[in-house]
Amino acid sequence: MPRYDVVFREARILEDGAERLSDVAIRNGRIEAVRSRIAGDGADEVDCGGQWLLPGAVDMHVHLRDPGLTHKEDLGTGTAAAVAAGVTTVCDMPNTRPPVLGIDELRAKAARARAVAHCDVRFFVALGRDNVDAIARCVDEPSFVGVKVFLGATTGDLLSDDGTLRRALDALPCLFVFHAEDEGVLRRNLGAAGASPDAAAHHVLRPTEAAVEGARRVAALAGPGRRLHICHLSAAGELPFLSGGPQGPTGEVAPHHLWFTADDTARIGNLLKVNPPVRLATDRDALRAALADGRIAAIATDHAPHTLDEKAAPYSAAPSGVPGIDTLVPSTLRLVQTGLLSMARAVDALSAAPARLLGLADRGRVAEGLRADLYLWDERKAWCVDRADVRTKCGWSPFEGVTLAARPDAVWFEGRKVVV
């Protein structure tokens, strides 16, 4: 009888930031052994031939639109697209219909995920204007990972006042993640692009100043025991407010902010209308540099699917947001292929760092005792993104026509090879 469920032979892995060839053995959904040569056999023997065996990506920022907006994504379709693309953990945001403001909505979403999800799903609860006590009941739920705070209006009306925010920070021992565009700056800037703006003006209407002021406000909240995190960094001016120390705030960047600029928004219109906007080339380059040197901890998609019909509306009516779950791993590993990012930094930002930030200590690395969430990747291959290849329910990607790294050759979730 085979000793292991799966044995990967001659896999290229990262260990303490350095690459080496190793065998990796899986049993009961966990990595049981990582050694240069494993004697026992596996029910499934995988000859890696020196290909990369990487830990499944942990996307700490997705909008799976379930419940209430399932015509453009749901917990089943979104997680199927995720796991096929090497993303084995996702954290869903609360601005659904109804929004997740307390334990009843949280438990309903968790039950739905248990029934239909193809990968691990955790959930954020939104801070509203008067629900601190309701969130306190959620903190010990297994599916709960933290509180989402909206400093500026985006999809839905979930703004909270400063008094409620401070009460929540004092009362709730958990991660707080911020959509950190400042609402005051956004309101003052409403007429900045003239009477009939289009998508090319989106970064003017939601200016850099809103993001920088939001980051300043988050940094001012830092203190002992507080876990603060800024979502979807978009501007160079936000970077000085990130902390490399234990008190935060930490930050994440989305692939669309690493790849596109306002010139691309002018070219393809509402398909790149997103909050916060993609900005100037100088911002994109500063974000890439901060990701490379570790000032930005994590990459997260802010996967926010809308249908093509919705995006075809006039600018003022078209919703903000772009899908990203299909392209998270390929877009990040393309930065490795082109020399803009080291493999060690890419894997940390995709997997280990978000797992640390979320408190999920059982994943994010190829190491003994951890979950066997893994994918094989061939660094010699590339992928020119085609709409026909996109798995998310909305059926399109802003990366169409862009050459990225290849998608994973195969994915294992909890030690089982994925077929979706």
Describe this structure in words.
This protein has two domains: 4-53 and 369-417, Urease, subunit C, domain 1, CATH 2.30.40; 56-358, TIM Barrel (Alpha-Beta Barrel). It is of the alpha/beta class and 420 residues long. The mean pLDDT is 95. The protein has 13 helices and 18 strands. The chain is 28% helix and 23% strand. It has helices at residues 75-84, 103-116, 132-136, 162-171, 183-188, 202-205, 208-220, 255-259, 262-268, 281-293, 308-311, 328-337, 343-358, and strands at 4-15, 18-27, 30-35, 42-47, 52-55, 57-62, 87-92, 120-126, 144-150, 175-179, 227-230, 250-253, 298-299, 374-377, 382-384, 403-405, 410-413, 416-417. The relative contact order is 0.16. The longest helix has 16 residues, at 343-358. Strand 2 and strand 3 (30-35) form a beta hairpin. It has an eight-stranded parallel sheet. A four-stranded mixed sheet has the order 3-2-1-4, with no helix packed on it. A four-stranded antiparallel sheet has the order 5-14-17-18, with helices on one face.
